[in-house]
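Suppose you are handed only two things: the residues of a chain and a line of SMILES describing NAI. What would the bound structure be? This form records exactly that question and the answer produced for it, so the two can be stored side by side and reused later without any lookup.

QUESTION INPUTS
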Amino acid sequence: MIKKIAIIGSGVMGSGIAQSFAVSGYHVTINDIKEELLNHAQNRISENLSLLMEEGALTDREKQGALANITYSVDLEGAVRDADFIIEAIPEVIELKLNLYRQLEEIIKPDAIVASNTSTFPISQLMEKASSAERMVITHFFNPGHLVPLVEIVQHDETKPEIVKTTMDLMRKIGKSPILLKKEIAGFIANRLQTALMREAFYLLKEGVADAEDIDTAITAGPGFRWAFTGPIEIADFGGLDTWQRVFDNVSPVLDQSKGAPDLIRDLVAEGKLGTKSGEGIFTYEESTVSQKINERDRNFIKLGKLKMEKEEVL
Ligand SMILES: NC(=O)C1=CN([C@@H]2O[C@H](COP(=O)(O)OP(=O)(O)OC[C@H]3O[C@@H](n4cnc5c(N)ncnc54)[C@H](O)[C@@H]3O)[C@@H](O)[C@H]2O)C=CC1
Ligand SMILES: O=C(O)[C@@H](O)C(=O)[C@H](O)[C@@H](O)CO
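ANSWER OUTPUT
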């Protein structure tokens, strides 16, 4: 029975993941290496819960209940000692993750499940030195973790079936849409799809086919508009497989085949232009613009999430 959750890493993803559990009634302890970072996470969670209230997705009582469900601690052992389910959302640095798993094996309950929110590391690499690999999985949440429904669950050969079932059930209990990878593959599913599309988007930008704004609108007003409710495989059926056969035959040969990050991204990163985190990337941002854009983004995601929930209740 999963009752107590521990989230290790209170950054972009950890705070949102913790919020998802707290809103659903679970007691969550968030751990990080500095009190200051935990304070930032606490403020971010409170603001995110207030936005959900403003959009009618949460009552004040539910917000207060969620806040009461969360504990913040720089004490790793204290955070995980009684936890039934532990998710690490620390930086995508393999040495950090492997070192953390070594620490956890000494201090967690014998039946605790350990999950990683890694974006890219194969589970076999994460578990290679673990002595309790049978109770380890990947739970890949998407940014923002408290609003995007998808969680990719990645198992490996040694993962016990009951661990996978418990993990899938737990994700559904916190209102997520878990999908289970049946075999290990680099980049999992959504990041492979997302990266393939982004590779083509940056190719079109480099070739001067359209401005960045129009390339983005091509998705948000086109396929992206559909994808919130109809995925690519179903789109093929709806469009007609005979037509899609011709589309594949005509377009596949001319798609970009690059094997690494676009030069534009490499050049910008080399100049320290990292996007919103540095104030400039492909686009330029004023400090206030970023928070306004995130606020608008999240309000739209909340409205979309409510629409999708209404659809699922009807089905
Ligand atoms: N940022 C994103 O859009 C997404 C990131 N991810 C994955 O989630 C993980 C976390 O990413 P972010 O939240 O973006 O990183 P982040 O850098 O925003 O947060 C990481 C947090 O972990 C803390 N930390 C580092 N070492 C620690 C330790 N030993 N114990 C406790 N806390 C520690 C850091 O102080 C920081 O607060 C990564 O594996 C990343 O690939 C997955 C989906 C989306
Ligand atoms: O976009 C997301 O939230 C996830 O697909 C990711 O894992 C991202 O690729 C993230 O790692 C980088 O923003």
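WHAT STANDS OUT: The mean pLDDT is 95. The radius of gyration is 21 Å.
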